[in-house]
Amino acid sequence: MVIVAGFLGAGKTTLLNGLLYNNRGTRIGVVVNDFGAVNIDAMLVAGQVDAMVSVGSGCVCCAVDVAELDELFTRLTDPRAGIDVIVVEASGLAEPRNLVRMVVGSENPRIRYGGLLEVVDAAEFATTRDRHPELANHLRLADLVVLNKVDRLAAGDTARLRSEIATITGGAPVYATTRGRIDPGLLFDPRARDTPRIGEQLSLDELLHDHDAHPAGDEHRHLHDDYTSTVFTTATGLHPRRLIEFLENPPPGLFRAKGLVTFAVPEAERYVVHLVGRAITVEPARRSRSGDTELVLIGTGLDTGAALERLRATVHTGPEPLDEQEMLGIWRYVPAESTA
Description:
This protein is an alpha/beta fold. It has helices at 12-22, 69-76, 96-104, 125-131, 135-141, 157-169, 184-187, 204-207, 240-248, 304-312, 328-331, 336-339; strands at residues 2-5, 28-32, 51-54, 60-63, 85-89, 116-121, 144-148, 174-176, 227-234, 254-261, 271-276, 279-284, 293-300.
């Protein structure tokens, strides 16, 4: 579940419309509190509360009050709904912090936190910050800052503004764009849906697909895109403590990481590792107790060479296997229900 926040005029609605109508096969549930600006003319619906409307692409658009979110999330995550990812517009529903807490603390096993996106109008950043001092707090909470309308900046100002925002956030990735365009692969795993695959979300096989493949002439690529990804693989077990250090202090620009990990600890299970922004989840890979480590890293402005070098340093090179106590850092991020 991805949360989108930002003040009036930043470009949230344009971003949402782009995700709804430019994705290729992914079924998206978009939750907003006002249909007014969302382009749903073809749905013949406007302004209802708690209305769920299907789009021709298989996406769903909903209008809700914040008190109804828990019930709505339950409905949208029902496998029969066939939704792959839910995008929630925070503005007007609740403070972003409250929505993040609701998602991260959800007991719904089908909900996984996909990050908080703070959309910022690059040309009006100083004015917006003066008018809304709370913007700085929103930026510090964000997992990804979407710096929109950079085409309205003078030459060189984009880099300066990105640096200023990075200072506020403490290093959250900043994605520079125009017209709210963002590569869906940065937020979730795009799906080529030849046949319906009801109830499946965030397929590892599809995440391991080459995210760097952007065909020439693709209308979604443009001058300001800087979405990058890379894959780390090794047949040697990792040192658990070193991997946790990498995940807790990720390289600049890293937004998402996901993959299967094998540790150099006797009898240790293989794990599925997820990182979104600052949120880490580790789950036993029930159907795979052995195999190579495969980690996909996705970010914006990410130095892939430096990131891979740090991951190579997590490989255990000693002659003896590690003690089971080295897994304590990993177990801290394993949900209780996964170990029951």
